[in-house]
Design brief:
Blueprint (H helix, E strand, L loop, with lengths): L8 E5 L22 E5 L20 E8 L6 E11 L2 E8 L2 E10 L2 E8 L7 E7 L5 E7 L2 E13 L5 E8 L5 E11 L2 E6 L6 E8 L2 E6 L5 E7 L5 E6 L7 E7 L1
Antiparallel strand pairs: 1-2, 3-4, 3-18, 4-5, 5-6, 6-7, 7-16, 8-9, 8-15, 9-10, 10-11, 11-12, 12-13, 13-14, 14-15, 16-17, 17-18
Length: 255
Amino acid sequence: MTKSNNSLSFVIATAILTFIIVGCGSTNQSPPTANTATVNKADAGPSPASEPPSKTAPIAGDYTVTGKNVDGAGDYTGSLTITPRDDVFQFSWSSGGRTYDGVGVQTGDIVAVSFTEGENGKGCGVVLYKIGADGSLDGKAGYWGVNKAEFEKAKRISGSDLEGKYEASGKSPDGKAYSLGLSIEKDGDGYSFRWGAAPSELKGFGIRMGDMSAVGFGGQQCGFVMYEVTQTGTLEGKWGGQGSTRFGTEIAKKK
């Protein structure tokens, strides 16, 4: 991921809080709070790589959503609008009088989103990795409010499966090249990601599905969703955030 002193500042939570994220429009939870510190991602994140060619399923449009909250905290319903923003997508949910907004990226039939409560997802970012046979990661990243995507390559230097230490390099949306370390550790049903080193490391949390991994970053307030686009155009996803012991699920059907 990248550090930037202008448009790519991100907020990283510095306190571990009880975290029950309101699922893309849940009605019986309130957003978590956290003490935050500013981090630059232009010297800390994805490599100069190009997105691998793949068939991309169209996802823009209006949806009805049904889902289950994290940690078994009940069901929810609502609506979702996906708006193309050049290389990325804006995701806007509404449910129970609350709104949620985020940024998403797509590779083939897999979509990754990072979101938070409110009318914008400022501070949140997402990366969608394709895991190679040799354990390398080919990533596409998006930042809320930035319409260009970022691409990253990460070579595993130790570890097995998805866990381990990596050397990552990439170029930020504003053209700045970067290289830094990346470490990935299993964390409950998900994975913790750390780019760079303290005190300016960037932290993320995500999930793996097959040879793809989706990671949300930007602070404790930023959750993630990982969708698979079905042949009918329905989005079937899992979502959560740091501290979730059980992921929520969501199905979004086009209106």
